[in-house]
Amino acid sequence: MRRALAEARLAGEAGDVPVGAVVLGPSGETVAAGHNDRERAADPTGHAEIVAIRAAAAARGAWRLAGCTLVVTLEPCTMCAGAAVQSRLDRVVYGAADLKAGAVGSLWDVVRDRRLNHRPEVIAGVMADECAALLTEFFTRRRVG
């Protein structure tokens, strides 16, 4: 999660919402990392999870990320939760819950929907306070500035 937080800080420094993600391989090695890039890229799909999943698939040369873990600072939205299912990730680990758009248990629970053919394990609340504080700081500065 510390690596994902470092990625989130990069997003914040670039003026984007500070969310970071890392894809870990079966042995715990970092396969890829990414952070929100919507503003710079003018891309609505430029969420940290999508950036990291795309980079991991490219690094592995395959779209199936079986054996891998997605670690992200904020609970994934529906798009990102769907990408976790579609990429066949083994697990999703996240920090802060997203009560407004979270799709891994808060508002929706896409990844555990029994109608889907793949359901990653979910580990929630890892370093949640630190992850949430980064977001709170960012939005507080935006409101003041």
UniProtKB/TrEMBL annotation:
The active site is at 49 (proton donor). Coiled coil: none annotated. Its cofactor is Zn(2+). Gene3D superfamilies: Cytidine Deaminase, domain 2. Binds 1 zinc ion per subunit. One of its GO terms (molecular function) is tRNA-specific adenosine-34 deaminase activity. It catalyses: adenosine(34) in tRNA + H2O + H(+) = inosine(34) in tRNA + NH4(+). SUPFAM superfamilies: Cytidine deaminase-like (SSF53927). Residues 1-107 form the CMP/dCMP-type deaminase domain. Pfam families: dCMP_cyt_deam_1 (PF00383). Homodimer. This is tRNA-specific adenosine deaminase.
